[in-house]
Amino acid sequence: MAVFRVSRRHFLAGAAASAGAAVLAACGGSTATTIPTTAPTAAAAATIVPTRPASTAAPAASAAAATTAPTTVAATTLITASTAAPAATTAPAAMATTTAATAAMASGGMIAGMTWDAILAKAKGSTVDWFLYGGSTTTNDYLDKYVIPQMQTLYGVTVKRNPVTDTVEVVNKVLAEKQAGKSTGGSVDLIWINGENFRTIAEAGIVYGGWSKAIPNAALINWDEPNIKNDFGYPVNEREAPWARAQFVFVTDTVKVPTPPKSMKALEEYLKANPGKFTYPAPPDFTGSVFVRHVIYETTGGWMQYGNAFNEAVFKEKTPAAWDYLNRIKPYLWQKGTTYPEGAPKLDQLFADGEVNFTMSYSPTAASVGIATGKFPKTARSFYLEAGTVANTSYIAIPFNAKNKEGAMVLANFLESPAAQLERAKTTRSGDSTVLELSRLSETDRAAFKSIVLDEATIPTAELAAHALPELPAAYVDRIEKDWTANVLKKQ
Amino acid sequence: MTDRRGARTAVIAIWVLLVVLPLMPLFVWSAAFAWRWPALLPSEWGWRAWRYVVSPTTGVRGGLTGSVGIALLTTAAALALGAPAGIVLGRATFRGKRAVELLLLAPFIVPGLVVTMGIQILFIRLGLTDTVRGVVLAHIMPALPYVVVSVAGVAANIGTQAEEQARTLGASPWRAFWHVTVPMLRPGLAVGGLFAFLVSWSQYTTTLIIGGGKVQTLPLLVYTFTRSGDNPVAAALAIVFVAPAIVALVIAARSLRDRNATAGRV
Amino acid sequence: MGIRGIAANEQIVIPVATRRRSSFVTRYSLLLSLLPAIAVVALFLIGGVGFAFAQSLGAFALVGDSELTLRHYADVLRDPDFIGALLLSLRIAAVSTLLALICSTGLAMILRQRLYADGPLRLLFQLPLPIPHLVGALGITFVVSQSGVLARLLHALGLLRDRADFPLLVADPYGIGIVLVYVWKEVPFITLLLLAALAGIGERYDDAARTLGASGWQRFRHVLLPLLLPAMLSASLIVFAFTFGSFDVPLVMGRTYPKALSVWIYERFSDVDLNERPEAMAVSVLVTFVAAVFVVAYGALSRRTLARGR
After folding, report:
1. Between chains, do C36 and B80 touch, taking CB under 8 Å as contact?
2. What is the pLDDT, as a whole number, of residue C151?
3. Mutation site, B21, B117, B259, interface C, largest C CB count within 10 A
4. In chain B, % of residues over pLDDT 70
5. Interface mutation vs chain C, best among B27, B109, B246, most C CBs within 10 Å
6. Helices (H), B22-160
7. Of residues B178 and B3, more confidently modeled
8. Can you tell me the ipTM of this complex?
9. DSSP class of residue A128?
10. pLDDT grade, residue B94 (50/70/90)?
């Protein structure tokens, strides 16, 4: 069993060996280095045994904290200065509450029994190789100007941002490392990931588990919320940490489209009256793919019928209606549907150039950001489908063979801190949507989030949240993309 | 006659325009803040893209140093490996020479994508992926033929007469080679080196697959921003990306001319 | 490929001296000089293609068992998408090569005039040579896309009502944009090669034909063209093989469907479904085989060139 040094030490120290099997099963591979721990602090497998009494009740949690806090976590050191106080009370609490029920399945909540202090100490002076989409200057700015220097100052951790064009590249890289037998000292420490890509690394057994709920700031997150607990319907299971939220919106230019079509039916009518003025990115592009899922939701009778796991019969019976719709609107699309923009940025460009009247985005503030960077006309506005609009979460995950798991966890923890979340909201104009549960924050932090003002180009967060729809299970997504290619793209 | 001359001038003028035209919008885009259809020029100008490019925190500098360093290392390695082969191929006859020539020129034709994809798994096992070392190694193959061809060309042109004369005058073989032939080879080495530099400079796929996103070079950045539709930043990066190529062209052209002057044209 | 042009200049000269024996080069130093270069190229070519071949047979599989099989070849050859990609790539390569060859021949005829022998024009027309394809693709997209500079100019002149009326030249079904980039990039390359060949041919034949009263076209058609043909062919081979296997231009300017073969390969290679990887490798091996045929053809051709030259 290939494990990294510290893990092995603890493994040999006499961890519950019986837990091994469960861990391996959960992580889907013998090389996943999730080693059981002796310390009963693990907040493991809460998704399997959801025993946490109250995901919100902060006072209760605090009370629990009072008794169980001195387990292994020294919470005060974990969180950035501004928020240390509230987090210190809540952080160990959530962990403690899950302890009893999950001890048997413990998969190393404190990374194989290491205390957070020990993790911090080990991370100090190390370098974290973070691989993430690099084409957004606002996100890059946030990381380059805030996260990277802060990580250096607060924790002595050097963060290296490795920009990629598509997350698939990173997944592929780790897969290739596994293929070549490189099970330690891997080159990727952290990936910005979700959906199919996460499912892929989980099923290939190349994701490191048992950590994301154990890091201190995880206590500020409501892990019972479906959109956090499951990533595209796929159980997160402590293998990734949420760090940003996304919800699908359309953007249009109100000068050209004063009353935007808010349903698929209205869209079809609009297209017939204004041919060539709409298109969507070709799946498997992330954004194009979710547009197609919205079509499926609206034209086949809702998302509920698809269930929690892939169901071939339902899929085969229901989806033809969606392909029908997409083929019906095809002649009225940009370029008569003979080609599609290869990604959301290309669609943004078409919209910016006025070639089409709409663009779409997973970022609810896309219109505001577009106006601010000069790309979109000042009259650009967001709108959403009345039947609901898909929301999901961005996560970060650590590959099974990452050489610096400790550093990656410290970084993940920092990204989940109220200070970092607030800063992100400001620099990326991501609005007030945070992965943190506002009720678990200090009064000051809560107020700070609430004081973020959205401009008129963006829909208020609460209004959007009220229309949130879940993602389909990840297994569907892959199939939808393949079937779209066969049934829509290649249809003449 | 003047008519034909006029026609010829017109053809040349059009050609020059066609050559230069695709580079012009790069400059405009890089300084544009908003440039929407159908405006002929940006409605708002701005330095956002250039600020992003010159900022020390955005990673562009890292890409630039990566590109320069890798290209220099590749050049050195390609010269060290390719020059001796070029000299021999330019001057000697031996059995199997044809095969050696074909092998050394094959990277001109065999797609780099194929070779790199195949060799990735070996590189991972050798711990060469994600390292500058590995990327340089992967760049050598496409760069090598340029060195071989340039040096061989010059070596063939110089011939062995001067060296033989030096021998007649009593120089040892090594001295004759080192003091007579090598200086005459200099233009070939310079041109070959420049080619090697530019080949490495332009590599995209090889760096992506072997560098694994960890070794950043300019083409990776240009591609990322082209793909993300951020035209101003993509254009500004493209300009930075092109600059050394143009300098190299001027130097190469000059050194070719010098050599032609000394070695005489066919 | 880029700057290969200037190098190609020399290539033609290689054989002139090959028959001479060098005083310095002994058998021993000969081996010593060649071995490092041969080793590196062989390592990559044979190693790279070898590993690709092994993977195309199903070796090193990450999922499933690693039994050796030809299944992936069969799968690929039956896949209509593969055929589509292959045809598109062949078409792009053929059209690019042909157009570039025609333009280059014309340009070489003009530039061979002594008038332009050493001027700045000679330098200027070589400008695209060292410019990376990626930049060429970006620049040409900015010019010929439907909201590009050309469309804007036509609109400003009142010749274009809406940009949708401008022909689709980027991400179009025929790969026109891709062809434009290749022509832009390769014309200087072929031209340089032809100019070098023309310099080798000299003015004698041309002058003789002129004395015999041949017109300009006749001199070109019956005197220069036959003499240039070998150089044209070998240049075309290189350009064709290169454009056929090149990746970054179709990646930037290609269409959702069908895709160029190189993009098709890369997408399968980088697909998270690892079962796709052997297929990518199988196609790679097929492409390499085609390339190898070209290498040999080029070898045979350039040998004939030399024979003719003597």
Report:
1. yes
2. 93
3. B117
4. 94
5. B109
6. 24-30, 48-54, 60-91, 97-105, 112-125, 132-158
7. B178
8. 0.88
9. E
10. confident
Give residue for tokens 């290169």: C242
Could you tell me how many residues make up chain A? 492
Q: Which of A103-112, B138-147, B174-183 has the lowest mean pLDDT?
A: A103-112
- For A105-129, b/e burial (b = at least 16 CB within 10 A) is bbbbbbbbbbbbebbbebbeebebb
Q: What secondary structure, in 3-state letters, does A394-448 show?
A: EEEECECCECCHHHHHHHHHHHCCHHHHHHHHHHCCCCCCCCCCHHHCCHHHHHH
> What is the C-alpha separation between A147 and A334, in angstroms, rounded?
40
Length in residues, chain B = 266
Which chain B residue shows the shortest CA-CA distance from C23?
B164
What's the rounded mean pLDDT across residues B106-125? Answer: 86
List % helix, strand, coil for chain C (3-state, nearest 5): 75, 0, 25
Q: In a mutagenesis test of the C interface, which of B246, B249, B257, B260 is the best target, namely the one with the most C β-carbons within 10 Å? A: B249
pLDDT of res. B257: 63
- The pTM assigned to this predicted structure is 0.80
Contact B109 C242 (CB under 8 A): yes
- Please tell me the predicted confidence (pLDDT) of residue A154: 96
Q: For the purposes of burial, counting CB atoms within 10 Å of the CB of C233, is it exposed (0-12), middle (13-18) or buried (19 or more)?
A: middle
Query: Which residues lie closer than 8 Å to B213 by C-beta, 6 or more apart?
Result: A131, A162, A163, A164, A169, A170, A173, B220
The better pLDDT of the pair C46, B80 is held by B80
- DSSP 8-state code for residue A387: T
Question: Residue A73: what pLDDT?
Answer: 35
Strand partners, B216: none
- Grouping H, G, I as helix, E, B as strand and the rest as coil, residue C54 is helix
A165 in contact with chain B, both atoms CB, cutoff 8 A: yes
Predicted local confidence at residue A175, as pLDDT: 87
Intervals of chain C under pLDDT 50 = 1-23, 25, 304-310
* Whole-number Å distance between alpha carbons of A109 and A106: 7
Kindly give, in sequence order, each residue whose CB lies less than 8 Å from that of residue B5, ignoring residues fewer than 6 positions away: none
Q: Note whether B227 contacts A: Cβ–Cβ < 8 A.
A: yes
pLDDT higher than 50, residue A203: yes
> Chain C within 8 Å of A196 (Cβ-Cβ)?
yes
Q: pLDDT at position B246, please?
A: 79
Q: Closest by alpha carbon to C103, among C184, C212, C221?
A: C184
C256: chain A residues, CB-CB within 8 Å: 282, 339-340, 342, 489
- B33 chain-A contacts, CB cut-off 8 A: 374
Q: Which two tokens stand for residue C15?
A: 């054989």
Q: Answer whether A338 touches C (CB < 8 Å).
A: yes
- Name the residue of chain B whose CA is nearest to C161's CA: B38
Beta strands in A19-126 (DSSP E): none
Q: Give the closest-approach CA distance of C259 to chain A in angstroms.
A: 11
Chains that touch B (3 or more CB pairs under 8 A): A, C
Out of C15, C44, C142, the one facing B29 most closely (by C-beta) is C142
Whether the Cβ atoms of residue A237 and residue A108 lie closer than 8 Å to each other: no
Q: Give the chain B residue whose CA is nearest to the CA of C19.
A: B93
Please indicate if any CB of chain B lies within 8 Å of the CB of A164: yes
pLDDT at A104 over 60: no
Task: Evaluate whether A144 touches B51 at the Cβ level (below 8 Å).
Answer: no
Q: A264 or B171, which is more confident? A: A264
Structure tokens given for A18: 């019986």
pLDDT, greater one: A166 or A34: A166
Cβ-based contacts of B124 with chain A (< 8 Å): 176-177, 179-180, 182
Structure tokens at A130: 């973070």
Instruction: Record the tokens describing residue C177, joined without a space.
Output: 């944009």
